[in-house]
Write a structure and sequence with these properties.
Chain lengths: 376, 292
């Protein structure tokens, strides 16, 4: 990720910069170590006791795992305190980063581990019997699931639509960057769709403006000669309608980034181009576009990453229909959870998709790095 | 000749600007005006209040928010206000928690060199930022299972923790950029005056970084307010948010347009206001780190 992102400024060296280092006495260090060990042992003991209780070996334990969360919190605080006690000044520096690290690790590691376990079970909440380990069965049915591959195919369309969003957004950014009156008003107006929740947009546009009887969009379509306009019955049109709504919400994001990129361009460059008699078209392709390329690449990558999570609009407007034509992976898995309670299989789909995303984004980033190198 | 061409160019620019303004604002105009319509106005496609239809409070009455129902009992209104309150608590709570731990991490990453085994600052930053690509579907079910175990399912604090996780990479990205722009000499002067690392951070750096924090805060609130996926899967009654309410109404057939429009208007109004008055901060937050 960091490759395409601008570098952070210079880092102050780890060596003390004019600070009086408070020496940490050996006794203090030993006491700190003891404290950390004690807390770790305590946490391990509580977790172990609870595991034994849940598996029925012992009779003493907690009704649920909530106390383990508190134990984790206490342990985190002791670890942080231990850093300061043992390492003094340097421990204080570690304290800046520890909360975020401990939080993210706790929130990502446990769900990911349990996710991998769930993915290999035949767990269905609507069935009375609990989960069973079923090996590679889920993976096998994934490869035969035409709906999953169909949704994955749709994702290709949605990701390609980002290029359309980018083109429109660049046009808008150029308009806003022109010498115009009321720029502030236009900027606020253009940013507006970004503020709105996709779920509300689903009703505002998908369910009412695009409604086939009374919606304004249908009336305009009828006026233009489309006799029976319906935006969500033909696969291609339905997909285009979802893309239009998604674009409406996300174009402002790309536009804001590109506009900032344009405003950061040095004025002299444009002046020089004008003096040389370059037409606006030439000036754009020879100067503006290459100079804003880093911003473009960042905007496109971020947009694609967000696009890969597209779900809300599809879930609320089309529910994947007609015949799966608008399904995204997320909306498909959402239905697998919600309507079929198929937790085990749905999680396998999600994990599989996650691996695809990691591979895809890694390729994308290396491609972006190569493009940037060629232009700079 | 040249002047004519130039003013024609300007005219085209303004036409395009107005065209996109209509595209951006028409759905909002449509929703707000529809909330004051009755059945006839909807079926006949009336568009302009007082010109081709008379505004009625029908839609707002069904929410219990019209002038004649505002002081009477209304189950829909209390339901709506409860969801609204949940949305506020969740998004503000997650933004505050995210800003607190995210700013600290961002400051540490720009100022000190860390080593966690083979991991250096660059790797730690990548670790945080890479959470951005994690799609909600991957975490949703494991969280459902875990949250049922630790009794956090359908609680506000449970959703706050998840929302914090999802905005944390963005906050760290924005704040890293903000702190990197603050000259190190300021802190060094404070060190010489006898400040500790934390003293310098709290007393010198934090006040300078406040506008950046405001930008990150507002952006986080927007993202959390609009979140639907986790809220739909990880809440049943007591932690439901506004988007979940809107979505559940959208799905049911035969719901009146005017009620739906009133509900949508009420759901988007706070963010529309933020958009109008805080545009500067939103743009600052979005462009931090992306533009040099």
């Amino acid at each position: 990720m960091t490759d395409v992102m601008p570098d952070v400024g210079p880092v102050v060296d780890d060596q003390p910069i004019g600070i009086a280092m408070h020496g940490v006495s050996p006794e203090r260090r030993r006491a700190g170590r003891w404290l950390v060990w004690l807390a770790t042992l305590g946490l391990a003991a509580i977790v172990l006791a609870q595991i034994l209780f849940v598996s029925g070996v012992t009779a003493f334990g907690f009704a649920n795992w909530r106390p383990i969360v508190y134990a984790w919190l206490v342990w985190s605080v002791v670890i942080a305190a231990g850093q300061v006690i043992v390492r003094g000044e340097r421990g204080q520096r570690a304290l800046f980063i520890l909360p975020a690290v401990l939080f993210t690790v706790a929130m990502v590691i446990f769900p990911t581990l349990s996710g991998f376990y769930i993915a290999f079970t035949d767990w269905n909440l609507s069935q009375l019997e609990g989960r069973h380990f079923n090996g590679l069965d889920n993976l096998r049915s994934l490869f035969q699931d035409a709906y999953f591959w169909n949704a994955l195919g749709n994702m290709v369309y949605y990701v390609l639509a980002v290029l359309g969003q980018y083109t429109i957004a660049f046009g808008l950014a150029l308009l806003l960057n022109a010498d115009i009156h009321g720029r502030k008003f236009f900027r606020v107006a253009f940013l507006m769709p970004f503020m709105l929740s996709p779920v509300a947009v689903s009703w505002m546009i998908g369910k009412s403006i695009m409604e086939f009887r009374f919606g304004p969009a249908a009336q305009v379509a009828r006026f233009l000669g489309w006799d029976s306009p319906s935006f969500f019955t033909t696969p291609m049109i339905a997909r285009a309608a979802v893309m239009a709504m998604d674009g409406w919400v996300s174009i402002p994001f790309v536009m804001v980034l590109l506009l900032a990129g344009l405003q950061a361009l040095p004025g002299e460059v444009m002046e020089a181009a004008k003096v040389d008699g370059a037409s606006p078209w030439q000036a754009f392709w020879k100067i503006v576009f290459p100079l804003t390329l880093p911003v473009s690449v960042t905007a496109l990558i971020l947009r694609i990453i967000f696009e890969l999570k597209l779900a809300d609009i599809v879930i609320t407007v089309t529910d994947g229909g007609p015949g799966g034509a608008t399904d995204t992976i997320s909306s498909f898995i959402f239905r697998e959870y919600r309507e079929r309670s198929n937790v085990g299989y749905g999680t396998m789909l999600a994990q599989f998709y996650f691996i695809i995303i990691i591979v895809f984004v890694t390729l994308l980033l290396s491609l972006a790095a190569r493009v940037m190198k060629r232009y700079s | 000749m040249r002047r004519a061409k130039k003013s024609a160019g300007r005219a085209i620019i303004y036409v395009l600007l107005l065209f996109w303004t209509v595209i951006s604002l028409f759905p909002i105009y449509w929703t707000v005006t529809t909330s004051f319509k009755v059945a006839v106005d909807v079926t006949q496609g009336h568009m302009i209040p007082w010109y081709d239809y008379t505004p009625k409070w029908l839609g707002w009455r069904s929410l219990g928010l019209s002038p004649d129902t505002i002081f009477t009992e209304s189950t829909v209104r209390s339901e709506f206000l409860f969801r609204f309150q949940n949305s506020v608590i969740l998004s503000v709570g997650a933004a505050v928690l995210g800003i607190a731990i995210g700013s600290l991490a961002a400051y540490g990453l720009t100022r000190f060199e860390y080593k966690f085994g083979p991991w250096r600052n660059k790797d730690i930053s990548s670790f945080f930022l890479s959470q951005l690509i994690l799609p909600p579907v991957v975490l949703a079910m494991p969280f459902l299972v875990l949250y049922k175990q630790v009794d956090l399912f359908d609680t506000r604090i449970g959703l706050i923790l998840i929302y914090t996780l999802s905005v944390l990479p963005i906050i760290i990205w924005i704040m890293r950029d903000q702190f990197a722009a603050i000259p190190h000499e300021l802190e060094q002067a404070a060190f010489i005056d006898g400040c500790s690392v934390w003293g310098a951070f709290l007393r010198i750096v934090l006040p300078i970084a406040l506008p950046g924090m405001a930008a990150a805060f507002i952006l986080s609130v927007i993202i959390c307010w609009n979140e639907y996926f986790f809220a739909a899967l990880l809440s049943s009654t007591s932690a439901k948010t506004l988007p979940v309410m809107v979505a559940s109404q959208t799905g049911s057939q035969g719901i009146n347009w005017w009620s739906m429009a009133a509900l949508s208007t009420a759901a988007i109004a706070p963010l529309a206001l933020i958009g109008i008055f805080m545009e500067r901060y939103i743009v600052k937050g979005l462009t931090a780190g992306a533009v040099k």
